[in-house]
Amino acid sequence: MVVxxxxxxxxxxxxxxxxxxxxxxxxxxxxxxxxxxxELMRRARAENDLVVVSLFVNPTQxxxxxxxxxxxxxxxxxxxxxxxxxxxxxxxxxxxxxxxSEQAAWEQVEQITDRLEGASRPGxxxxxxxxxxxxxxxxxxxxxxxxxxxxxxxxxxxRMVRDLNFPxxxxxxxxxxxxxxxxxxxxxxxxxxxERRAATVLYRALHxxxxxxxxxxxxxxxxxxxxxxxxxxEPLARLDYLSIAxxxxxxxxxxxxxxxxxxxxxxxxxxxLIDNLLIEPAPAA
Length: 285
Known about the structure:
This protein has helices at about 5-20, 35-45, 75-85, 95-100, 115-120, 125-140, 150-165, 195-200, 200-215, 220-230, and strands spanning about 1-5, 25-30, 50-55, 90, 145, 170-175, 235-245, 260-270, 270-280. The chain contains ten helices and nine strands.
């Protein structure tokens, strides 16, 4: 496995691969790998000749009071894990490599970034879209792999690719969960044992909403209230937002129309976690 933090070296490697007719899969990450990241890499490994993983904690997607400086990092461990699943190139740029001067040009996806994470974290998706666009230009891959746990981010990337004609296929990979339902996240490492137990309330609330819909409830307000009530019974949980929305526009639904996206952000102690469930129509018989 090649490990480099230099854009020029990545571009030379990609050009050599293209001369040989190799297909390339890209997995953008911020590191501190867990099973969710590794599943993205395995999927890329199965569908491409070569796999590139970027490991970059992107400062422009963090707000001034967020956890950029404390975000978990362990590059040596990450390199070992990436090597173990067959990654061909690990791109580990420093911030000054990705942002060598004050950034004046930004990617901005509008409308779908006004809600949910976009409302709670102003400027977040501008940073996400910009760094992903940079990565697509540095590594012109055939396919790029993103997890559904960050569903709004996935849709932002899809819209950017569509509207700006990036020649890459965006591949969505289902959320990987712990046995008790908690979505895998690098930020789970912040949780104390007591907070870790409390964090299952996110999935329990989502699952409760899913059950209500499966049982025929179509009033989205009633479902929101039931989910909020479940969360309120967990003393360590503080709800940021809870949404039942169209998965393309993120506009809130009043009456359930499938597909629908149940999503939420909850603070467990000082750790903010997000999760979602996409509920789709039953397949035709």
